[in-house]
Amino acid sequence: MTMGAATDNSATTTPPPHLPTSSTQPDVIDVTIHPLVLLSAADHYHRVARGTRKRAVGVLLGSASRGRIDATNSFAVPFEEDSKNASVFYLDHNYLENMLAMFRKVHAKERVVGFYSTGPQIRPNDLRIYELVKRVVPPGTITPPVFVIIDVRPDRESIPTTAYRVVEEVDSNVPGEKSSSNSSGSGSGGGAEVRKSFAHVPSLIGAMEAEEVGVEHLLRDINDPTVSTVANLVKAKLSGLSTLTEKLVEMKDYLTLVAEGKMKPNSEIIANMQAIVNLLPNLNVDELVRSMLVKNNDMYMVIYLSSLIRCVIAMHDLVVNKIAYNDEVGDGLQEKVKEKKVAMKGSGGESGEEKKEDEGDSKKVGAAEKKSS
């Protein structure tokens, strides 16, 4: 078990003469996260930290080849950190070593390739956790471990993974007594220190054939068959636009911090932003505006005609159902009307005969009275 201290010596240290710089360390090209890791991380979070501000931490297992890391499996690690003091944390590394030994018995090819956190942001303790995880990496490993943030929030529309690697930067302007002692008597009063920080690495969501089959079986229970394909397409478009909005806001915040001097400018990031801006089309051309208007009018015309046809078909079906209902119900009514008519005719004949008999009797009585008189 490990308890963090109030100072972070692993993040800022004095570089020895034999310490390699970030340019000599092997680079990580990308990190591929498999579905089993996502499911395990989501289950870990819901069991441990659901409804709280805590986060879940675990170890990533997989393989690495030529700077490309495949995280195919993972397991949870008991982890706690103080909400008031960000430098104090608890990680059960004995449990980590025991679980790793059991995983090696099951699958010997899987090794530790890094660790994950449900974040959703980088915390001050992540560098210290990185040093603990680095201890269990097999000796002779060329590719360094990575740190992956798995965002388990359901309202996220973008890829839920963000990968980082640790880089070492030499800061030559460090004030204080420590820097003055390391400056070797230089008059500038500044020293050189190595500061570790996280650098972004491209992350992918990949799966093998067997994993794809399992994911498809899981999605069968989630998919709603009542939703039409057009609705799914519209939802996907809205999701893409919302993700694009988040990325643009993130770029704006970064440029704002750089302009205010709160963050160091990165030439690679700025070059990528310039390439994105250069790829944007020029929408101020009259021909393009006219073509877009014509295209929109054609699409709206198709939508309008489709709505009309749909309404006409619905009215036709309603009329057909009404006619069929009247035919079925009308036969029964006609039979009942016929029965009533027959009954009325029968009752009318009997009453007529009775009336005739009564009239004959009355005539006979009148004739007898005349004779007697």
UniProtKB/TrEMBL annotation:
<feature type="domain" description="MPN">
    <location>
        <begin position="31"/>
        <end position="170"/>
    </location>
</feature>
<feature type="compositionally biased region" description="Basic and acidic residues">
    <location>
        <begin position="352"/>
        <end position="373"/>
    </location>
</feature>
<feature type="region of interest" description="Disordered">
    <location>
        <begin position="1"/>
        <end position="26"/>
    </location>
</feature>
<dbReference type="InterPro" id="IPR000555">
    <property type="entry name" value="JAMM/MPN+_dom"/>
</dbReference>
<keyword id="KW-0647">Proteasome</keyword>
<dbReference type="GO" id="GO:0000502">
    <property type="term" value="C:proteasome complex"/>
</dbReference>
<feature type="region of interest" description="Disordered">
    <location>
        <begin position="170"/>
        <end position="194"/>
    </location>
</feature>
<dbReference type="InterPro" id="IPR033858">
    <property type="entry name" value="MPN_RPN7_8"/>
</dbReference>
<dbReference type="Pfam" id="PF01398">
    <property type="entry name" value="JAB"/>
</dbReference>
<dbReference type="Pfam" id="PF13012">
    <property type="entry name" value="MitMem_reg"/>
</dbReference>
<comment type="similarity">
    <text>Belongs to the peptidase M67A family.</text>
</comment>
<dbReference type="InterPro" id="IPR037518">
    <property type="entry name" value="MPN"/>
</dbReference>
<feature type="region of interest" description="Disordered">
    <location>
        <begin position="340"/>
        <end position="373"/>
    </location>
</feature>
<dbReference type="InterPro" id="IPR024969">
    <property type="entry name" value="EIF3F/CSN6-like_C"/>
</dbReference>
<protein>
    <recommendedName>
        <fullName>MPN domain-containing protein</fullName>
    </recommendedName>
</protein>
